[in-house]
Amino acid sequence: EAGVVQSPRYKIIEKKQPVAFWCNPISGHNTLYWYRQNLGQGPELLIRYENEEAVDDSQLPKDRFSAERLKGVDSTLKIQPAELGDSAVYLCASSSQGHEQYFGPGTRLTVT
Amino acid sequence: DAKTTQPTSMDCAEGRAANLPCNHSTISGNEYVYWYRQIHSQGPQYIIHGLKNNETNEMASLIITEDRKSSTLILPHATLRDTAVYYCIERNFGNEKLTFGTGTRLTIIP
């Protein structure tokens, strides 16, 4: 069974540029999560989707971050414009009906 | 904020049992204890979870004290591949949210 797929694995951009991350969850998983992990810290939830509906986006900085999960399958997280402080690893996870979350390998973003 | 307390780091000799403690003194009756680990440059990986009783699976054992205020994750025969950051998390079943702390960095020594 394929795991959670994320791309790209690494991204380097200059500040003020836009960037997008893509996630394909495990087949059949209705819940999808985006986390941000700063260096030396644990992951922090940005947004959670149940199918195509964002049910918890309280930690998403909405002035520059946006996310979508069209058709309730794969998802895209966007930052526009990026700031230096956005440098982090962005993790996607999925789960099925309250069971454990499966994480992808993450996208390491460096903003210069 | 994470409600669990874990040591920042631990070492364990290869082949020995690794015992990782976690304090969750404010855990409520409907909260489970979950353990995840994160190997360098990978996403977190689910290990085990429990409510009251001790649990065992192919990866580890989870020992929860009777008052549920603390628990210990046991890796019975640690290998070099078990070097990772281990996170202990309280989770209200039915609430999808995981709140990670900073975890314990476990280093397996050859």
Question: Could you explain how this protein is built, in words?
Answer:
The complex is a heterodimer of chains A (112) and B (110). By secondary structure, chain A is mostly beta strands. Helix content of chain A is 0%, strand content 49%. Chain A contains no helices and eleven strands. Chain A has strands at residues 5-7, 10-13, 19-24, 31-37, 44-50, 53-56, 65-68, 75-79, 88-95, 102-103, 107-111. In chain A, strands 2, 4, 5, 6, 9, 10 and 11 form a seven-stranded mixed sheet that branches. A four-stranded antiparallel sheet of chain A has the order 1-3-8-7, with no helix packed on it. Chain B is built from no helices and nine strands. In chain B, a hairpin with a 4-residue loop joins strand 5 and strand 6 (61-64). Chain B has a five-stranded mixed sheet, with no helix packed on it. Chain B has strands at 9-13, 18-23, 31-38, 45-50, 55-56, 61-64, 70-75, 84-92, 104-109. With 110 residues, chain B is mostly beta strands.
Oligomer: heterodimer
Shape of chain A: globular
* Helix content class of chain A: under 10%
Average residue-wise pLDDT of chain B: 93
Query: What's the mean pLDDT score of chain A?
Result: 95
| Poorly predicted residue ranges of chain A | none
Q: Which band does the percent of strand residues of chain A land in? A: over 45%
Beta strand count of chain A: 11
Alpha-beta content class of chain B:
mainly beta
Question: How large is the count of helical segments of chain A?
Answer: 0
Structural class of chain A: mainly beta
Cα-based radius of gyration of chain A, to the nearest Å: 13 Å
Beta strand count of chain B: 9
Largest interface: A-B, 22 and 20 residues
Radius of gyration of chain B: 13 Å
Biggest sheet architecture of chain B: 5 strands, mixed
SS strand fraction of chain B: over 45%
